Amino acid sequence: MTEKRSAPATIAAQALGWIEPVTRAVVPPLHPSTTFARDEDGGYGSGRVYARADSPAYDQAEAVLAELEGGAAAALFASGSAAASALFLALDPGDHVIIPPVMYWSLRTWLLTFATRWGLAVEVVDPADLDAVRAAVRAGKTKLIWVETPANPLWSISDIAALATIAHGAGARLAVDSTVQTPVLTRPLALGADIVMHSATKYLNGHSDVVAGALVTAVDDEFWRRIKLNRVQMGGILGPFEAWLLLRGIRTLYARVPLACRSAQLLAERLSEHPKVLEVLYPGLPGFPGHEIAKRQMSGGFGAMLSFRVRGGEAAAIATAARVKLWTRATSLGGVESFIEHRASIEGPTSPVPPDLLRLSVGLEAVEDLLADLSGALDGAGD
Ligand SMILES: Cc1ncc(COP(=O)(O)O)c(C=O)c1O
Q1: Distance separating alpha carbons of residues 330 and 144, to the nearest angstrom
Q2: Which of 22, 29, 38, 163 has the fewest CB atoms within 10 Å, counting from its CB?
Q3: Residue 340: pLDDT above 60?
């Protein structure tokens, strides 16, 4: 008889149910040791040598993440940026990669500067235009299509299954920055993606107290081994305490994300009706481009990130953010507390973000409090 596979919420809450064998502890011990003793014959009976190469602090969180994403293996990194750069640098100079115009801005900047100087042929193509992607891929030359869905901070949706077909047809991989949707809402590997990336700083950890990153691969192949070697050799490793905190955060993921999504949906609907709001960007709104794809590939919610444009331009948007009392004016996302951010001023002059846009990361507060605070701040606009 085959054992029934537990639901993802169960896997996360119990962190796979691992029990520490020596003490029977249900919470894993913290392993700060940087090195591991050799046997008398010079061998490494524990299988461990040095913590930059292989830390026991990662084992459980990586196993849980691989299981939640339905992958063959996962790897933790010092940040989402360290995870993404380890992946891109596992390609070869000269390889062609396709990236979207809207994506986490700092990674886009790195790709168009450092990675391009290093030798990657980086081309920006809108992944919503599948014909444009088909026309851009070069068989044998394109090695990676990178998408972020929903894409920060306009929340554009990419069709993972369609892009995976195009990538595979050209002999390329599809990598998905899944930070915002989390495995709770979408499992990109099941839709055909090859690698999933997370800024684990956000929802996976969920408490605004850890910077971390993760990759999950569909197959444990030569390319994955290159990525893992990049982590060892370039040293973008996560500290053991951060890995421990991250695992603790993941355990409540399936309770946090649906609640935050429900609040985000309600806020998006209410903000759409507010006379001082020009436009609301949220994949859960029926009129939003990509809503139909989002309905197909996301389940249980459309994410807890949304943006809205304030009538009156940049000054009105900044003044609205200045008037909130409950929301915190801060960057980042995915924490239990809600953030509001004037995005264009952090991304700088090359940003595709409209200057009147405010980005919201919806947390776990009572939604009526969040709504009342925002409505009050908007009502004051133009006073
Ligand atoms: C969607 C997305 N991807 C990647 C990153 C980079 O992650 P980190 O800050 O952990 O390096 C961020 C950070 O804001 C992000 O929002």
Answers
A1: 33
A2: 22
A3: yes
